[in-house]
Amino acid sequence: MVLASTVKLNSGNSIPVLGLGVYQTPTDVADSVVQKALDIGYRHFDSAAAYKNEQEVADAIGAWLKKNPNVKRKDIFYTTKVFDTEHGYEATKKLIATSLEKAKAIDYIDLFLVHSPQSNYEKRHGTWLALQEAVESGKVKNIGVSNYGIKHIKELLAYPDLNIKPAVNQIELHPWLGRADLVKYLKDEGIAVEAYSPLARGPRSKRVDDPALGEFAKKYGKTNGQILIAWSLAKGFIPLPKTVTESRLISNFESLNFKLSDEDIKKLDAFDVYGVTGWDPTVYPLDNEKEENK
User: For 196-211, what is each residue's pLDDT tens digit?
Assistant: First the structure.
């Protein structure tokens, strides 16, 4: 099985085009799931402070690297995130220190994201300043955001002390939630687009089982999930499917081995109904909007 290729971020660093999301991956299986994924060829892992499994994921990567000295630390990409409750300069500095301690088996963090914009201007601003300092320290290589809408990105880009532009915005994306305007804005700004819930599974929906999607799976001789991941890759996104099942780890990774036709990509694009399957902080109001709504 071939390794996932990489793309360049606006920081100049590279990121693998396919990752493994570890949201809801239990701590007692994280080690085996991550090491099996590495055996398969995954080189990109997406965690968060809120997932409560940073330590286990980082330890698993560190243990696997020791057993596989031919693979270097620089070949693995590890992400974590600052949750909303830790926004603000001082709170984020403490959170970064804690996350780095949990990641000591792998020495540094490749990408630190603001998990969502759900706080206020002062706290979001303070969090970004703390993240910029973390990059300057050398222990965090890239910083970015998650669940940010256009207005949140514009606010960030207007910070008077902005030194580092977000490398990434991680958002829910799949054919039923294409977010064309937001995606275009991000690409115009040179911000990479990561797709979480690329299989359209969530509390509100199980669209992965849609019979219309199954027609594409039959045509290509692939699974519904593979069609969705291939669509995400074709759109230039970095999909982060999550699973703890070995067969699905393999199946998802094999999505790298085929491409959809341009015609079928357009047909899948037409599924779009703004079908959010989980939460949607991209619409979270800015401070002035809250005042207007009082």
Answer: 999 998 777 778 889 9
